[in-house]
Amino acid sequence: MPIMFGFAHQRRQMLDAELERLLSEMPQLGMLRMWAIGDLAMGRVTTESTLDLVLVQETDEPWQRRADFWNVHLRPRVGTNFFVYTPGEFEELGESDPLLMAAAMEGESIYG
Fold first, then answer.
1. Where are the domains positioned within the chain?
2. What one-character-per-residue DSSP string does 63-98 give?
3. Predicted confidence (pLDDT) at residue 1 exceeds the cutoff of 50
4. What are the backbone dihedrals phi and psi of residue 77, each rounded to the nearest 5 degrees, phi first?
């Protein structure tokens, strides 16, 4: 496998720029809180890193359909994963759900 220098830095810049773009639009779409988790939050960005976001939003949609709302409205320009919880789920599952625990322990609070 060839070694590529600088591409992880470029990917980091792309992820940061996309996060800023998304953040400018998300509050008016109903986002209450948001954390970055994964490679970006841990400072381990590689050329394959995605933007992994834990969101809190009031919604009646089932878990498996919640990310669809954000993908349709925001049309991410880089690989992005939205993990969406309701405020009640956030309070109820905060100490048992692996994604919420990752957000609390190693995530970067972005909004709210």
1. 7-111
2. GGGHHHHHHHHH--SS-EEEEEE-HHHHHHHTTT-H
3. no
4. -95, -10
